[in-house]
Design brief:
337 residues; alpha/beta; Helicase, Ruva Protein, domain 3; 2 domains; 5-stranded parallel β-sheet; two-stranded antiparallel sheet; 15% strand; globular
């Protein structure tokens, strides 16, 4: 027990250091910071959605700096080609042979900016990288570096020239984080920092962020998360939450609930969502300084783990309901152990 307590205390110190270094540049947005740290520890990809100007890109760049990871940014556009992302074969006339020119995907941390602007071919190439940690160039398959993490941004209000992300690709994102507007006090602090010369377009004028976590620290955090205890009743609870999103699930077919929410869901979450809930609940417990999971951990991560995995029906749009509304209903219906 003492060994477990010391491990939790040690990881808590690393996590707090990361939060502190991120806070040098990111005002507020604690849920965003914790979400991308959670994705890094879990080894899962994260989708960030919010209007422009909310520091999504800056947060990803700062994470790359404090984690001392190789970092590449790819601006997704409608004319982007798979070769622009993964690389291509280049003919060298002097050698009379083809050589491989690797693309920006070969980095530990990839920022896929405005990911929904790229067409289907690029999304397919990215899907292989996200799902299997590898890419295929010509006839050869290449492994991507470890750790490998895709942090993608998406603008919810601008739909001209965008392509809806395929459900298969969305399911590969561990979390979808909604980035809110800052509070009045936080925005006032942002304005004061800008007045004093804080300018995100000039890297030399950014607040300094020191490396706070190494690849070995990331592995230590992952080992600590795997050691967090999850009682069987909690496992059954999180599986029940995911199963409740499935309209055709036998367990839901004949069951009446106080809210008829199932008509708002065309397709529910897959077992990959249960795995995500299990992983993220343990990391959330670690963030709280515990070596065991409680139902509140599951509830805390459920919206981010499920909102992008639900395919809503026409009725949901007509009634003005979002995936978060339905997840909230489900959490209120499924019995807590």
């Amino acid at each position: 027990m003492k060994e477990t307590d010391s491990r939790v205390a040690g990881t808590a110190a690393v996590i707090e250091t990361c939060r502190r270094e991120m806070a040098r540049r990111i005002v507020g947005q604690s849920a965003l910071v914790d979400g991308i740290l959670m994705g890094m520890i879990a080894g899962g990809h994260v989708l960030l959605e919010g209007v422009p100007g909310l520091a999504k890109t800056l947060a990803v760049k700062t994470l790359a700096e404090i984690a001392d990871l190789s970092f590449k940014r790819v601006q997704f556009t409608p004319d982007l080609l798979p070769a622009d992302l993964i690389g291509t074969l280049v003919y060298e006339q002097a050698k009379a042979a083809f050589s491989v020119r690797k693309g920006p995907i070969f980095a530990n941390l990839i920022l896929a900016d405005e990911i929904n602007r790229a067409p289907a071919k690029v999304q397919s190439a990215l899907l292989e990288a996200m799902a299997e940690g590898q890419v295929t160039i010509g006839d050869t398959t290449y492994r991507l570096p470890s750790p490998f993490l895709v942090l993608a941004t998406q603008n919810p209000i601008e739909q001209e020239g965008t392509y809806p992300l395929p459900e298969a690709e969305l399911d590969r994102f561990l979390l979808k984080l909604m980035v809110p507007y800052p509070s009045l006090d936080e925005e006032a602090e942002i304005v004061r920092a800008s007045r004093d010369g804080y300018e995100t377009r000039d890297p030399d004028r950014l607040a300094p962020a020191s490396p706070a976590i190494t690849a070995r620290d990331i592995e230590t955090l992952r080992e600590a998360a795997r050691a967090v205890r999850v009682d069987d009743s909690i496992v059954r609870y999180l599986v029940a939450i995911v199963a409740a999103t499935r309209p055709l699930a036998p367990s839901r077919r004949d069951r009446r609930t106080r809210d008829d929410y199932l008509k708002y869901i065309s397709f529910g979450a897959s077992p990959r969502a249960s795995i995500a809930l299990h992983q993220c609940s343990r990391i959330n417990a670690l963030f709280a300084g515990r070596d065991y999971v409680i139902p509140e951990d599951v509830k805390a991560v459920a919206p981010a783990a499920l909102r992008h995995r639900l395919v809503l029906s026409y009725e949901a749009g007509a009634d003005g309901l979002s995936a978060d509304d339905l997840v909230s209903d489900i959490l209120g219906i499924v019995p807590v152990p």
